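Subject: DUF1003 domain-containing protein structure
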Amino acid sequence: MKNNPTFKSAISGLPFSESEKIYGKSIHDPILGLIKKEFPDFNDNDCIAVNELNVYRQKYISNYLSTEIGALSAMEKSVISSLKDDRSIVSTVEDEEESRNFGQRVADKVADFGGSWTFIISFVVFITIWISSNVLIFLNKGFDPYPFILLNLILSCVAALQAPVIMMSQNRQEEKDRNRAKKDYMINLKSELEIRMIHDKIDHLIMHQQQELIEIQKVQMEMMNDILDQIKK
């Protein structure tokens, strides 16, 4: 009986049956890259066995799955970091509210009080007491008889002082509104950019996965063809 012809593997140096012989030029590029990574001298004219090739095929699939899991984890970390940045942008608005000087705080307090029902009711009560005490108690011979010149002077002074204070507070309110609008714009812009970034990542992952799945299908088809060839022989 004649011995079956054999060949020597270029990577392990072991003899294998000639029916298991696979040339490097017939190996798919991703698998060939893994082989050359471990054996740089391997070229298209070298040969390996089907069993050895299957080991690298399995390694390629395992590397692909681990890479995809790592990519998803990195994307989750990026989203969490972006959410933290959003929170820091929003907090700057509150920080600016606390940086008012004494005059600005007084103007805000006066404007808040001057535009409330508390001020209106208090002022009506004050005027009523003033007029009643001069007319009914002192019979127009008290400290401010009719036509209440002193009261008119007080009201004029209050109006003269209150008007610029209210205008100052309105200017402060406009400034705060502009700052809030600016912060809203910054937050919306950041959110839009993050959404675009996430879309780009998802598109990249989908395209990458499609390409890798096609490569895996090709590898699986090659393995099935090798099995069928061995069964036929």
